[in-house]
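Good morning,

Both structures are done.
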Amino acid sequence: QVQLMESGGGVVQPGGSLRLSCAASGSFFTINTMGWYRQAPGKQRELVASFTSSYTTNYADSVKGRFTISRDNAQNTEYLQMNTLKPEDTAVYYCNAEICTEWYSCLEYWGQGTQVTVSS
């Protein structure tokens, strides 16, 4: 079976940095798209950063210039480098990917989430 597993969350002071990782495990042919979302209490889940199928990047306005999404295709791992963190970045962060277990069978997968808390 295919799974996405996030790691790297924690508590950090404003201005600090964290790097989140999301590893895909299982048997599959391709990962078409990958991205990061977050959800704060009382708010809708929002897109933070993503790769499109053409490997271009997309960032939320609130994180542009501070966050960087990257991926290691050989290791089937996605990263989110978060710099200059603000209290407003506090949320549960989820990784997301469209994964094809067969060329004709592609589904959207979500990780379980990792908590990021930015507080002094």
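Second structure follows.
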Amino acid sequence: QVQLVESGGGLVQAGGSLRLSCAASGRTFSNSFMGWFRQSPGKEREFVAAISWSTSTTHYRDSVKGRFTISRDNAKNTVYLQMNSLKPEDTAVYYCAVPTKERTWFGNNYWGQGTQVTVSS
């Protein structure tokens, strides 16, 4: 019943920007984290950013700090990932995720279908 739908990926030159969106539905998310992960070919899926739905507390992996900003619109049940100063190493499929259990960090997650981000050098 939980559905996560990503959009906003595309092709951009190094130094450019993209904004990803994740529309969430199917349950209340007031006690949940919502986050973004990414996966490049041949690599493990890795954590990118997360936000507490209720408090807006944010978490980022070190390599994107200062460049990416996660935010949410509670009224729209939508989470965004603003990506600035993009680098070729940011190229990946980006996935929206929410833990299956409320009040927990990521582990067993619901996943969106993914959206491709390609950064050319």
